[in-house]
TrEMBL record:
Domain Transposase IS4-like stretches: 151-312
Organism per entry: Ktedonobacter racemifer DSM 44963
UniProt-listed InterPro entries: RNaseH-like_sf, Transposase_11
Name of the molecule in the record: Transposase IS4-like domain-containing protein
A Pfam family this chain is assigned to: DDE_Tnp_1
Position of the signal peptide: none
Length: 383
């Protein structure tokens, strides 16, 4: 039995434990799909089947492998929401009692759909914890804020109402509706807002007149931090952190329920990491748009496999760096390889050298994404 097939055996055991309500055959196929996505670096079923066949993860013929994966993606009996919540509930237990930052964003999928995405910020990566697939050209059956509320509720069921959670979002989603969703759940919020919004600041004499927030920072190097009243139509008392960092095209205006300071700007800068995650799913990474899947429910099931793969490859990339092997795959003077590419290359290296005792860091135990300790699943990114 080759190392890729041994890895499949161990990985299948993890999938069975993490997705207990799936039928045994569905568990095996999901494990098969995720391993194929990671090893092939693609979400195109034909390419996944080719990799699983050529690497002898399966001895079946490639057309048979592809048909098996296609049946899983097309299977209406697979309740993605239910099984994903079981998966996330087990993993987020690891962060209970710790502050957690979640990033909300939307990304287009070709011209067919929009993916509403909620991710957990861990080190340099945004790991998917909830999502919804909505049509891009048709009217949504469910309102945008109803969708966001559903995603936040899924996370809250997993971490509990007492968890210390902060939601970050960019200008396209920021507004009073999102603030209220956070307040209703006891979450902190840190949102970047557009410059055309109006505010008035608190002074010793009371509140100033209404002005556009663009007046707070009008040139590089300026900053302003303090309490303010926002939105003349439906007022919100909040904290504004405005700063125009030299070298940036424009200033940032941030609102939060926590005290205004430069620390809010540093926190919000982490939101940009979600862009790297989206780029990894597209042409520079798993090339989701080349999958040719347009039907919403099928895309939903393919994303199930892809998002588990993102957790796995993030662990692999961190493991590669932790074991001092980054320069084996990337330049030493700068970082050219994304976390996606680095993690995948490290796994392929492990599969090739796992039986070679001279490579102490290259073994299958380092490649599996999750560990169980004291009846609890553990996920960590050790750099």
């Amino acid at each position: 039995m080759n190392t890729a097939m041994i890895l499949r055996k161990h990985w299948s055991q993890q999938v069975k434990a993490l997705f207990p309500t799936l039928h045994g055959h569905q568990q095996n196929t999901l494990a098969f799909l995720v391993q194929g996505i990671v090893m092939s670096g693609s979400t195109v079923l034909q390419r996944i089947a080719e990799t699983l066949g050529t690497e002898e993860v399966s001895l079946a013929k490639m057309p048979s492998i592809e048909r098996r994966l296609a049946r899983f993606v097309a299977n209406p009996r697979i309740d993605v929401e239910e099984i994903w919540e079981q998966f996330v509930r087990q993993l987020l237990t690891f962060w209970k009692g710790k502050p957690m930052s979640f990033i909300l964003d939307c990304t287009p999928f070709r011209s067919d759909a929009t993916i509403v995405y909620l991710g957990l910020l861990v080190h340099s990566r945004v790991l998917p914890v909830a999502w919804a697939v909505m049509p891009a050209q048709e009217k949504w059956e469910e309102g945008q804020w109803s969708i966001v509320a559903r995603l936040l509720d899924l996370v809250q069921r997993c971490v509990g109402p007492e968890a210390d959670c902060t939601l970050l979002a960019d200008r396209g989603l920021s507004g009073l509706a999102l603030v209220k969703l956070c307040q209703d759940r006891g979450w902190h919020y840190l949102l970047r807002i557009s410059h055309e919004h109006t505010f008035r600041r608190q002074t010793r004499q009371g509140w100033s007149t209404w002005s556009p927030v663009s007046s707070l920072v009008q040139q590089p190097g300026q900053h302003w931090y303090g309490p303010a009243m926002l939105w003349q139509e439906s007022s919100l008392q909040t904290q504004i952190s405005a700063c125009w960092t030299p070298g940036h095209e424009e200033g940032w205006v941030l609102i939060s329920d926590r005290p205004a300071s430069k620390a809010r700007q540093n926190e919000c800068a982490k939101r940009m990491r979600v862009e790297a995650t989206f780029q990894d799913t597209k042409s520079r990474g798993w090339d989701l748009e080349a999958s040719l899947i347009t039907e919403k429910e099928r895309l939903h099931r393919l994303l199930l496999g892809l998002f588990v793969a993102i957790w796995w490859v993030s662990h692999l990339a961190a493991s590669c760096i932790h074991h001092g092997q980054r320069t084996r795959f990337d330049r030493a003077d700068r970082r050219d390889k994304s976390m996606f590419r680095l993690g995948r290359l490290w796994l392929l290296f492990i599969l090739k050298h796992a039986r070679d005792s001279s490579w102490g860091g290259a073994n299958l135990t380092h490649s599996l994404p999750f560990r169980k300790r004291h009846q609890q699943w553990i996920f960590s990114l050790r750099f």
